[in-house]
Every structure is written in C-alpha cells, then in structure tokens.
Amino acid sequence: MPILPEYELSGQVAIFATSGGGEAPFLAAALAEAGAAVFAVARTRPLLDSVLSALPAGSAGTVINPGSDISAARALSEFDRTHDRVDILVNDARSMYAAPLPDIKPLTWDEVQTRNVKMPFLLSQQILPRMAAREYGRVVNIVSELAERGMINGSAFAASQAALLSLTRSLAVEWGRHNIRVNALGTGWIDSTNQPIEQQREELLVRYTPLRRKGTPQDLGPLLVYLSSQSCDYSTGQPVYIDGGLNAHP
Q1: What average pLDDT does the structure give for the chain?
Q2: Could you give the CA distance from residue 207 to residue 218 in angstroms, rounded to a whole number?
Q3: Which helix (DSSP H) or strand (DSSP E) does residue 166 occupy?
Q4: Sheet order of strands, 239-242 included
C-alpha cells in the first residue's frame, strides 16, 4: 500500500484491539506498513495469533477479558513492557451476532455489548489519559454501517455499533482539548476471502450496492492510516464510511 509522506506513522506506537472479524490482520498490518509499531490486543488467543501473524516478527500482544477493567489494566501493563507511550488506539469492535428478537437471550445481548462496546470503553479509559498527558493522540473506532441503519435479525449487533459510534462522538468532544482526535471508520459488507465478482453479484445485497461489489480489507487500510496520522488534525467525532455507497440509499 503506497503511503503518502504526510500520512506516514513512522515513530508512532499503536494499540490495535479486536473483538472479532476477518479484517483484523489486514488492518493491523496496514498500520505496521505505514511505519507504526503495533501492539495487538484481542479477546481470544486465536484472534490474537491471527493478528500477530500479519505483523513484523517480534511484535507483541495480549489477550483481554472484554468485560473486565482489571484485564484492561493488565493489558496495558503488558504493553508497558515493550513501549513507553501510545500514540494511536484502534478498536475493531465488530463481533457479529444475528438472531430474531424473540431468540436473543439477555445473557447473549450482554455478551455482544461487552465485546463491542465495553471493551473499547475500558481500553479508552486506560489509554486516553495517557494520551492527554502527552497532549497528543489518535483514536479510531471501527464500526459497521449498522451503527446508523437497521437490519432484520440484527438488533443486538446494530445496537452495539450505534453505542460505539455515540461513544466516539462523546470522547471526541471530551478529549479534543488535549489534541486527541477520535473518529469512526465505518464499514459496509467486507469480503476477506477474495470471492469472484461474478459470484458476489449473485447476492441481492451486492446488487443493491451502488459499486456492485463487496469491499475488501485493502479498501479500509488507507483510510485507517489517514485517521491514525498527524494529518488527521481537523476531523474528530466523525464516522467515515467505506461501504460502496450503501449508506447513500434511503
């Protein structure tokens, strides 16, 4: 991925946290390719291993209990063993769940909100004061476009995405005076399996998408790098969507 000089992340330290999703290794790799040192955080060991496999040899990471403030603090203690500051926080909080409303158990609802909202909240609570002490920081919360749209059988997941988008806006207002920018990168339907275009267009949602294809992780990387860079200086509290035009539909 070509990186414009003004968007380079050389010398920057990023924490990349994921609660699930096939794009996570590609997104973490985009930060590293732009020059950032990336520390990975994930809610399961397989997720963590997949992200670390995409990063340069020697990159570190840890598993976090997404609902525990003690676990979040421990994750930062692990981080402190290899880094002395954090410039960038990326929360990839799109652990998908779909079910009809009558079938959603209260415990399942709570688990979805914990993975997708509480984990970014706890990490932000740990990291934003550190950024404020240095008067610099970039936070990118990756959300689904369902943060602002509805979907049949998608109430639990969509509610988590809307909550994270609202958190993004509130943190942008609260921490802007400390030279911290907090934005959301919104995604549409992303395919990380290299599905042929002809096969994609057999699906109704692809035919409904103005660009007539699913997105790829490579579509997301350049915007993630920009939102993480020093050049992203006068944008905060904003969701920016890469969705093939889906949100342009009524």
Answers
A1: 93
A2: 21
A3: helix 155-175
A4: 61-63, 37-42, 13-20, 88-93, 137-144, 180-187, 239-242
